[in-house]
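Aim 2 progress. For Short-chain dehydrogenase/reductase SDR, the working sequence is reproduced below.
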Amino acid sequence: MITGPTAGIGRSFAQALAARGHDLVLVSRDKQRLDELAEQLRAEHRVNVEVLPADLADRSALAVVEDRLGDTTRPVDLLVNNAGHGLRGRFLDNDVEAEQGLLDVLVTAVLRLSHAAARAMVARGSGSIINVSSVAGLLHRGTYSAAKAYVTSLTRWLDLSYRQQGVRAMALCPGFVRTEFHERMGVGRGSAPWWMWLDADRLVRDALCDLERGRSLSIPSKRYKVLSALARGTPTAFQARLQGLGR
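Predicted structure tokens for this construct:
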């Protein structure tokens, strides 16, 4: 199951897994784009693709996805929690309901779907969860960073707690990726140097390799491994100064 599969990292996951012969369950708000992607994957890879339209910020719609994950007659072997969005403004510049919507998708949905998936996987003794987090979770940069810090921490704890019961969990922590994500926020490619932008397909290939290697944390590319190491050791006060410079 992949949430947010119609573009960017989620679409790359869908393409990569279908190419490996895996049947898919695709979850997104946009039914038209879901149907188009499903048809493409069925035609190209001869796999079964189930479409499940759902707004993950809507608790009743989220419950439908949770129920699907718990269906023992149609087990989900791998959950990719990828759906998400960002807010361009600073905390007090954003409407509180917009901030709540961000929390609902980035944290609440990941929590509940991970819980539903892990419960079913532990019961049968196998399964994997990839939660798409971000290197932003290593920084102090508003509610998006706070949400991703939660996702990374939760995921690594899940792996530590349930690995012995046959269930794997891995946090994928990319940086800037060439997708629709920043465009939807009204942020251009000039917001970061060219060398910081990653290719989504390569990112996903590396992430799946890291999952197979048994890693609980996947940070793509040497450049982001170095930047992540630096971020962990950077004092909060210095990070605040950098934010004042727009980075």
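Strands lie at 2-3, 24-28, 49-53, 78-81, 127-132, 167-172, 176-177, 197-198, 217-218. This observation will guide construct design in the next reporting period.
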